[in-house]
Specification:
mainly alpha; elongated; 0% strand; 6 helices
C-alpha cells in the first residue's frame, strides 16, 4: 500500500461531509420550492411524482421510517428482519447486513441523512419509472 493513500483517504472525509451537507441544503431548497408550488397551484394540479417527492421529505414520514429501522435493528437476529430492512431501504443484501448491525450506534443525524436519501431515491425512482 502506498503511504500516501491513508492520508488521501483521511483528507477526503471533510470533502465528503461537505458534499453531503450541500446535497442536504439543495434537497431542502427544492422541497421548499415544491411545497410552495403545491400550496399555490394546488395538490391536484401538479404531477403526482412531484407530490411523491414532497411527501418523501415530510418529517412524519422520515420519523416513521426511522422508528421501523430502529425496531428492526434491535431484532436483527430474528428471521425476516433483514428482509424487511432491505424492503424498506432498497439496499443490497451485503449493505443490509453491514448496516443493520451498526444502525443502533449511528448518531441520529446520520440516520436522518440516510433516511432522507432512501425516501428521495424511492420518490425519484417512482418518477423515472412512469
Amino acid at each position: 500500500m502506498f503511504p500516501i493513500a491513508p492520508m488521501m483517504a483521511h483528507s477526503l472525509v471533510p470533502l465528503l461531509e461537505s458534499n453531503r451537507q450541500e446535497q442536504d441544503k439543495l434537497l431542502r431548497i427544492v422541497h421548499s420550492l415544491a411545497l410552495t408550488l403545491q400550496q399555490v397551484a394546488g395538490k391536484s394540479t401538479i404531477p403526482p411524482e412531484l407530490n411523491g417527492f414532497i411527501d418523501a421529505l415530510q418529517t412524519e414520514k422520515q420519523d416513521a421510517l426511522m422508528d421501523q429501522l430502529n425496531d428492526l435493528s434491535t431484532r436483527q437476529d430474528e428471521p425476516g428482519s433483514a428482509r424487511e430492512f432491505r424492503d424498506l431501504t432498497g439496499l443490497s443484501w451485503d449493505a443490509v447486513h453491514s448496516t443493520i448491525g451498526v444502525w443502533k450506534n449511528w448518531p441520529s443525524k446520520n440516520k436522518r441523512c440516510f433516511i432522507r436519501s432512501v425516501l428521495v431515491e424511492r420518490a425519484l425512482r417512482d418518477w423515472t419509472d412512469r
